[in-house]
Amino acid sequence: MGDGGGPYTLPVVKDPLIGRLVDSRYEIVDRVARGGMATVYRAHDRRLDRVVALKLMHPHLADSPDFVARFRREARAAARLSNPGVVAVYDQGGLDGVAYIIMELVEGTNLRDLISSGPLTVGEALGLTAQVLRPLGAAHRAGLVHRDIKPENVLLPADGAVAKVADFGLARAVTEATQTTTGNVLGTAAYLAPELITSGASTPRADVFSVGIIVYELLTGEQPFAADSPIQIAFRNVHEDIPAPSALVPGLPRRVDELVAAMTRRDPQERLEEADEALSLLRTTVAGLDEAELGVKRAGRPGAGRAQDVLTANAEAARTAMGVQGEGEEGSSGSQEADESGQSQAHDAQDGSEPGAGMRTVSLPIGSIGPQDRSAGSDSTTRALARDELDRSADNQETTRVARRSGRSPRRRAVLAVGALVVLGGGASGLWYVTKGPGRTVAVPDIRGLSQDDAKALVEGRGLVWGAPTRAYSDTVASGLVISCSPEVGIRLRLGDAVTAVISRGIEQVEVPDVTGMTQEEATTAISEAGLALGAVTQDYSQDVTQGQVISSDPGAGTVVNHSTAVAIVVSRGRQPATVPDVTGMSLEDATTTLEAAGLALGATTEAYSDTVAQGLVISSDPQAQAVGYYKGDTVDLVVSKGPEMVTVPDVTGMSEEEATAALEAAGLVVEISHVLGGLFGTARSTDPAAGTSVRKGSTVTLTVV
Asked: In this predicted model, what pLDDT tens digit does every residue of 300-354 receive, in sequence order?
């Protein structure tokens, strides 16, 4: 799980919490990792019989009731964020007064391990980045800002599933608590956006900056800035542009440099607004690259090994996240450490060394590093003084700074002396300037939930400037009202500083895609790509839709619904089997009714004579009763009786015996001969029944011969 801070080596000491039962439910099995914000344990959920991760905050973070309340609120907010790319939050509570959360346990490695194995190709790097931006976009749409995006907080499941981002809400809760109690911002120096360092303001743009640093690191195998201390790296983030990765990766396409630059601009107003916008630009970038450009990779750096195994398993998820068609579709957080079974949920330094300056979680005084001075008076001396102040901030974060350093240059001593005289000589006027005059600061008013006009009036009434607002979807804030602002509510600004609001577009509306005729898997992908969730899946027989394909959806195709709506689908079971009923002896009308009741239809009807079946009744059917392999809607042919066949007794009078016999038999009659006077003349005299009588075919006729 992500530990919310940089990892460090654990001493081999048995943890007293091992074996403890928390909340009569979670049995702590072993300790996975310990970081700057929390300790992560593997636990067994006895109630649901599953393995989970229990993240226990460090006690010093939970000293204030404000933090506990904020932590619980953020945990609930993160739990509502349902996305396959977000580590699921199951539960939260307290252990001996210390807050904990129960999270999904993700087995696998993390992005830091992957980066340690060497740079990636352009295609691999952008594919993984897209997987980070997708859940981050869902969080931004829900009004959540992560604040601590870094490789340790991106997990790569061992089964090759989509990458997972962890610690949503946790970073926000801890950072707000730190700002409230100490005036500091907590984070990993290399990934902190400049505005977080200078004013503590956090918006989706800050998360985009962090992801941009990750892109740089995936491509080059190293962080943009190197320094001896985190404060120096933070200084460079504020005062220097992130270098183009092509400086280290020959042949890197210009489009990739432009993507990294758009995500990491120092001025947040010039940076991409949110993760969805960054993902859109990334996909456009990928679409403009050919196979050779996607295969560009920094040479002369270590790579392959287990990194290639992870990338191979993750390839399908990466292609889906980038929006590549035809290749198949689109926690724990933080650091990872393999346990004895090869599973991992946190990562500690394996060699016992301290992590690099750019990977350690640090607490920086907000505003200790100001925005770069672009005035004509800015020179190397000013920057040197600023760096000195940063060094002293790293060693001592108290508000009052003492203990001047020895060995200062004469020029520096002169500058400090002048500063002291200004303070002593202008104390009264200086006090007025910062308390009543134009140098005073005011808190950003709470404009959340107000209309744009009302919010603007309130901001300008405080002496602040109303910046050009941005717009975002919100499930909880009505259209036209303020969702949030940057800097955030309560941050103190100088008069004339700008406040930028995020105005709600209302609940995002999505059109239901037409999934009829698709397989269930294809329909699930189409629904997910449309930004909707798959609802109930039921099965039904269909005469027209092939087995395994979707018959219909609810809501139907083309319906515009809230993005949180679940789309139910009905999948075809194919044609419904039918049993052929026995209709022999029935009238044609009754036989037709019986067939229809069985789901069958009347086919061809023919007539035939029958000595045993009365006229108008069914003699037989095709197929016969109880035949198998037939389905509803099939037809059944019937043979209907014409009754017995009738013939007319022919007139054979005067014929010879032989001729008369032949004529009667030709008519279908059976002949019996009666001789009178011994049949002396051999001539037919009469028949019984008499000639012209209608009798059943096959009847016996007596022929009298004289």
From this structure: 655 444 455 555 556 566 666 666 543 333 333 333 333 322 233 433 333 333 4
- Residues 78, 168: Cα–Cα separation, whole Å: 6
| Residue among 148, 167, 276, 634 flagged as catalytic | 148
In angstroms, how far is the first alpha carbon of the chain from the final one?
120
Does an H or E element contain 419, and which?
helix 410-425
Q: Is 660 left (phi over 0), alpha (psi -120 to 50) or beta?
A: alpha
Average pLDDT of the chain is: 79
The strand pairing partners of 606, in sequence order, are: 639
Phi-psi bin for 169: left (phi > 0), alpha (psi -120 to 50), beta? left
Strand partners, 91: 102
Helix (H) or strand (E) holding 320: helix 306-322
Is the CB of residue 146 less than 8 Å from the CB of residue 171?
yes
Please tell me the number of Cα atoms within 13 Å of 400 on its side-chain side: 1
Q: Residues 205-234: pLDDT tens digits?
A: 999 999 999 999 999 999 999 888 888 888
Say whether pLDDT at 428 is over 50.
no
Q: How far apart are CA 256 and CA 461, in angstroms?
A: 43
pLDDT category of residue 201 using cuts at 50, 70 and 90: confident
How far is 266 from 507, CA to CA, in rounded Å? Answer: 31
**Token pair recorded at residue 194:** 């400049």
Reference 163, options 151, 174, 181, 173; nearest CA is 151
User: Residue 306 corresponds to which amino acid?
Assistant: R
- The whole-angstrom distance between residue 504's C-alpha and the CA centroid of its chain comes to 23
What pLDDT was estimated at residue 4?
Answer: 45
Domains of the chain: residue spans and CATH? 1-396 (1.10.510.10), 444-504 (3.30.10.20), 509-572 (3.30.10.20), 588-644 (3.30.10.20), 647-705 (3.30.10.20)
- The structure tokens listed for 213 are 């640093």
Contact (CB, 8 A) for 572 and 541: yes
Residues in contact with 402: Cβ distance below 8 Å, sequence separation at least 6, in sequence order? none
In contact, 9 and 348? CB cutoff 8 Å? yes
SS3 category, 238:
helix
Report whether 44 contacts 387 (CB < 8 A): no
- CA 627 to CA 630: how far, in whole Å? 7
| DSSP symbols for 216-240 | HHHHHSS-S---SSHHHHHHHHHHS
Candidates 139, 165, 143; CA nearest to 153 is 165
Burial label, 119 (beta-carbon count in 10 A; 0-12, 13-18, 19+): buried
Beta bridge pairs of residue 553: 569
- In this predicted structure, the answer to whether residue 13 has a pLDDT above a threshold of 60 is no
From residue 366, alpha-carbon distances to 82, 116, 170, 198, 442 in Å are 33, 31, 19, 6, 16
Exposure of 133 by Cβ count < 10 A (0-12 exposed, 13-18 middle, 19+ buried)? buried
Percent above pLDDT 90 for the chain: 49
Strand, coil or helix: what is 329? coil
Give pLDDT tens digits for 100-128.
Answer: 889 988 888 889 989 998 999 999 999 99
Q: Is the pLDDT of residue 522 over 90?
A: yes
Residues 6+ apart with CB under 8 A from 406: none
Distance CA 31, CA 36 (A): 15
Neighbours of 350 (CB within 10 A): 10
Structural tokens at position 99: 């807050």
Q: Is 159 a catalytic residue?
A: no
Q: CB-based contacts of 599: which residues, under 8 Å, 6+ apart?
A: 576, 578, 632, 633
pLDDT for 229 equals 83
Structure tokens at 238: 């504020």
Question: Could you tell me the pTM of the whole model?
Answer: 0.49
Which tens digits make up the pLDDT trace of 35-75? Answer: 767 788 999 999 999 999 998 888 876 665 656 666 666 67
